[in-house]
Design a protein that fits this description.
Layout: E1 10-14, H1 18-25, H2 27-36, E2 41-45, H3 51-61, E3 66-71, H4 73-84, E4 95-100, H5 106-110, H6 117-126, E5 129-141, E6 144-150, E7 153-157, H7 158-171, H8 179-187, E8 194-200, E9 203-215, E10 219-220, E11 224-225, E12 237-243, H9 247-252, H10 254-259, E13 268-273, E14 275-281, E15 285-288, E16 291-310, E17 328-329
């Protein structure tokens, strides 16, 4: 599907602090490229965590339905939550594009969105679109129940610990594609496992769990494939459950996260489902799209083909078949 992008007024949400303040430093170059490509827009800058949600809601109130995110996956997540929070407007009415100035670009990698600004703007101008699934997660922050929408991956356990550490360092000005990998290695010494009960639709798994990834998309952590077979519009989550294992075994297995063979490990299981409930002792922590949230109990449900996103020319939606990929278990 394609849209005529040059006839549409776009709301551009800019995170000036993304990617070591690349949003601020490179905005003049990005805005010039948008004008050169005859993309009519107005722009607003975020001022801190959560502000993109507010700015999106305000833009929707003014009639905006087409958004470009200039930032990272976290900024995209906030814009999505602004859109999904407007329950009286069908989310399929909205279109999302992205110009990445973050470091991970995992959502854009899934959809073949170029990292070069000029190519990313041309991608928006070309207007190739795709209806992708979204996820809704309910969780706890202390004793308060909260909820969040996401477009890419939710991580629990060790993954959430690493993301929380990365986010704290980003607030202190650290960044770079190796930040997640470095924190992954340094966090191994202090993290063990949790005794976890996972209900996937009607099936139940009880085990000592190291980490869990629940994906709409494939990529996280700057290119790791924790859910390598995920399809963004099949109406299912892909789950990767890593059970308790020794530290050196984890280190030796890291290559499998990058080459897409993680499900071949004997202590890793893959599942597919629409609704997941997770309880753990001690409580297991949560992140979605790189945003640190709360802890278990956690409930996640799929929202099928709920939002239209702009994809790169090379993106081809894989056909959905009944065949379960190698390494998967049926629920």
């Amino acid at each position: 599907m394609h849209i005529q992008t040059n006839n549409i007024p776009w709301e551009v949400i800019v995170n000036p602090n993304a990617g070591k303040q690349k949003g601020r430093k490179d905005w003049e170059k990005i805005s010039a490229l948008l004008r050169e490509n005859e993309i009519f827009f107005q722009s607003v800058f975020t001022e801190g965590p959560g502000h993109a949600i507010e700015l999106t809601c305000e833009a929707i109130g003014r009639g905006s339905r087409h958004f470009i995110v200039v930032g990272g996956d976290g900024t995209m997540n906030e814009v999505v939550n602004g859109i999904f929070g407007k329950h009286h407007i069908p989310t399929q009415d909205f279109v999302l594009g992205m110009i990445s100035v973050g470091t991970g670009n995992d959502w854009g990698r899934m959809f073949c969105v170029p990292s070069e600004y000029a190519d990313a703007v041309k991608t928006i101008r070309q207007g190739k679109t795709f209806y992708q699934d979204a996820g809704l997660v309910r969780y706890y922050q202390d004793t308060q129940e909260k909820s969040r929408y996401f477009l890419n991956i939710a991580g629990m356990g060790f993954d959430a610990v690493v993301v929380r550490k990365c986010n704290r360092q980003k607030q202190n000005g650290k960044s770079g594609v190796m930040l997640y990998f470095k924190n992954l290695l340094t966090s191994l010494a202090s993290y063990s496992h949790t005794h976890t009960r996972i209900r996937i639709d009607d099936a139940v798994l009880i085990d000592d769990v190291f980490t869990i990834s629940i994906g709409i998309g494939k990529f996280t952590g700057g290119g790791m494939m924790q859910t390598p077979h995920a399809l963004a519009d099949d109406g299912f989550f892909d789950l990767t459950v890593v059970r308790r294992m020794k530290k050196m075994e984890i280190v030796r297995s890291l290559k499998k996260l990058y080459d897409g063979t993680i499900l071949e490990h004997p202590k890793v299981s893959g599942f597919r489902g629409k609704k997941i409930h997770i309880d753990s002792e001690p409580p297991i922590h949560l992140e979605v799209d790189g945003e640190s949230l709360g802890h278990s109990p956690i409930e996640i449900e799929i929202l099928h083909r709920r939002i239209q996103v702009i994809t790169g020319k090379k993106f081809v939606s894989a056909p959905v078949t009944a065949k379960v990929p190698a390494g998967f278990q049926t629920s």
